[in-house]
Amino acid sequence: MSELFDAVDALVASRAPLPPAGERKRLRQAHGLTLDEVAAALKVRRATVSGWESSKKPTEPRGPEREAYARLLNRLAELYPAPVPTQEPTAAPVPTPEPAAAPVPAPEPAAVSVPAVLAGAPAPVEQAPPAGPVPEDADVQAAPTAAAPRPERSARSTPTSRRPAARKAAPAGAATGGTDPRFENGPLAVVDVDPDGQALAYCPGGLVLDVPARSLPALVDWTLGEAKLGQPKLSGPGKDADPLIVLTEAALERYGLPAALTDEERLAGRIPEGHKVVKQLARAQWKLTKRGLGPWARIYRPATGAERACVQLCIPSWHALDSRHWGDADRLPPAELARLLGVYAARVMTPRGSTAVTGLELMTALHPPTRASEPDTDGKRHSEHNPGSLGKDPVDCAPCEAPDGHPLLADLPRFHVRGPAEKLFEEAYDWARPMTDDECRHRHLVGIDVNMAFAAGANGLVVGLGAPTRVKNPAFDPKLPGSWLVDLSHVDLSRVKAGKDKWAELDGSLLPSPFTPNGEHPQGPAWYATPTVAYAVELGYEVRPIEAYVRYDNGRYLDAWYHRLRDAYLATMADLGVHADMAPADFLAAMDGYRQRDPQLAIVVSAIKATVKGGLGKLRERPRGEGWRPGEPWRALSRPTWRPDIRAAVISRTRVNLHRKIVKHAAFTGQYPVAILSDCVVYAADGTSPLDFLPYRDGKPLPGGFKLGVNPGLVKHEGTQTVLWGEEVRERCDAPDLNLARYIKDGTVTDTDNGE
User: Fold this and answer.
1) pTM (2 d.p.)
2) Could you count the other beta carbons within 10 Å of the beta carbon of residue 213?
3) Using CA atoms, how far apart are residues 510 and 314, in angstroms rounded to an integer?
4) Taking 60 as the threshold, does the pLDDT of residue 247 lie above it?
5) 354, 322 in Cβ contact below 8 A?
């Protein structure tokens, strides 16, 4: 009889009633499921599921697929019941105070076994607690997170439907729109087109909006008028961030734009001004900035008073998202890309271009150049300089701070090469030496890397805010930012102060000089930034500058920038299971494979790091084509944020910080580095772990030395190779001083630039 009952049940299930096609689609999207996910669970093709949901000629599933599909829809209908239409009252009710709208929580899904696709249902989670060499022109405490937030479709912008939009609780690492009602849908949206031709805007936090716009000008109007996208200002005198719209390839086709740029367009960084879409924008009285309609574009109308009308576009298929920093973000589905960019926007800021551009824009957003004055006698306020900022006008650098080709150097002979006494040359370390016989008896080479080294170098650093003042024969002041011409060749690294009035005897031949990027000992007077000269004094030696360009108007301009990026980095690492309070062994274990726990959040970490280095690099941006010739100004010089002195000071302090730890380590252990590249240091050791040579006692590190941890300035394990590997590589390359720190991570010897 049981077989007969099973047959009857199967017969009934084969004719199970299904909701209309539109309701099928609504239920799928309410749970954030893609067509591919449903198709994989039911073991059918994507096109089959799309046909079941077609609004024109829906097809009907048959056999076992119909039974499974009906069960899926029934389970989803329990989670997301159809809205009950409200009836219009026949008489006007007595007015009563309207309570504030509360967010509608997503119902907690019941446990199901079939289909498995429902297992990805998001559940509300606790919010993570708050966590406490640079290229010149680089354009450059929670459990591991769950899957990306599932989007919920909202009919906010569809006149024929008024279903309330209920934002689901976002998993750790997902950004939400915050409390500002103007930007309740978040800082950005990824616009895509579904198989039925409907444009959808995927927002951070899982919300999906219908987009009625059928042209790019209409999309801009919709973004500014209905989408409720944007981000509140980061500083009192600042400006709100413009909404960011990311266009997928399907959206590009919808709005008449090419899916990819030609080689000529890629080199120009834009599509031609005669393109039909550019003309559409002009007819609608929208303007483009000088960089035109390219991978990152700003579409605006001139501001009227305090009101701004500007939308930023990001086009991933035009290589807007550099793979060195954003990985494969440009290939993510729209909802996942919205989540990734939303996390970055919430923790850093809404992207304004490359990570380098965004890093520089973040400095300005945190220290706007102007502010409103106090009311005058007529009660009017005026724009005035904002103290602590770089102002709105550029300042000239000192001649020694100017890169080659700068207008200040126009009178130099054409092929003149400036030496250390003419040019400030503060750069990151690139130093290595042959291993000693004792080091060769060790089995391994272990690399350690300083977390967010350049960000840590910016923390608390006093930098110049205004123009330099030239001073002859000055007394050195370690608190005064500037560039100093001084002879440091008398500093002997074999005898230095390793603490207050405590001299240490070291093997100076095994140490790099702290005063040059290549570690070579200086041979005479040279230009140095303040932190470098101050370190010479700290080591116990007198300094007598010959000349200086100092900045009496100064301040800790980068502090807020550092704190913003530090908090973003720590919060994202915490989401990946790496916390700031871990014991050394637990930290090393947590770092092992952390990127695989949530690849999207790992991309955010990479982008945050690139924002630090790229932003600092932009402070001394070099000419980028533009038909430039040596001696002529280039575009970047017109920015108040073109400040090579600030970049030099950060790099100087970062290099000095690293050397100080190396000296402390050598004085205590007798161990010396074999190679240094930027913020990576390599030591010979018998074991494979940093704990095999770092002097921890009772879980506590050497004071002032290297400390394992996730915070900026602390170190992590970069990689381990054998000593035999190192010797073989140097012999194969016929370079006894080959910098092994460059290849210690995975042992692969390559010249490829990974953007780090």
Assistant:
1) 0.79
2) 20
3) 49
4) yes
5) yes
Q: Is 399 left (phi over 0), alpha (psi -120 to 50) or beta?
A: alpha
What is the pLDDT at residue 306? 61
Q: pLDDT digits over 680-738, tens only? A: 999 999 999 999 999 998 889 999 999 999 999 999 999 999 999 999 999 998 888 89
Torsion of CA 71, 72, 78, 84, to 10 degrees: -110
What Å distances lie between residue 422 and 129, 399, 402, 644, CA to CA? Answer: 50, 8, 10, 15
Residue 631 burial (C-beta neighbours within 10 Å; 0-12, 13-18, 19+): middle
| DSSP code string of 612-676 | HHHHHHHTTPPP-STT--TTS--GGGGSTT--HHHHHHHHHHHHHHHHHHHHHHHHHH----SEE
CB atoms within 10 A of CB 722: 14
Region of residue 182 (phi > 0: left; psi between -120 and 50: alpha; otherwise: beta): alpha
Q: Find the length of the chain.
A: 756
Q: DSSP 3-state assignment of 366?
A: helix
CA distances from 672 to 11, 443, 657 (A): 78, 16, 16
What is the rounded end-to-end Cα distance, in angstroms, of the chain?
Answer: 70
Q: Provide the b/e sequence for 91-102 (b: ≥16 CB within 10 Å).
A: eeeeeeeeeeee
CA distance 383 to 372: 5
What mean pLDDT value characterizes the chain? Answer: 86
CB atoms within 10 A of CB 276: 10
- Say how many C-beta atoms besides its own lie within 10 A of residue 518's C-beta: 12
6: confidence class by pLDDT, cuts 50, 70, 90: low
Q: pLDDT confidence of 135, banded at 50, 70, 90?
A: low
Residues 6 or more apart whose Cβ sits within 8 Å of residue 91? none
- For residue 389, what are the contacts with CB-CB under 8 A and spacing of at least 6? 364, 367, 368, 369, 370, 465, 557
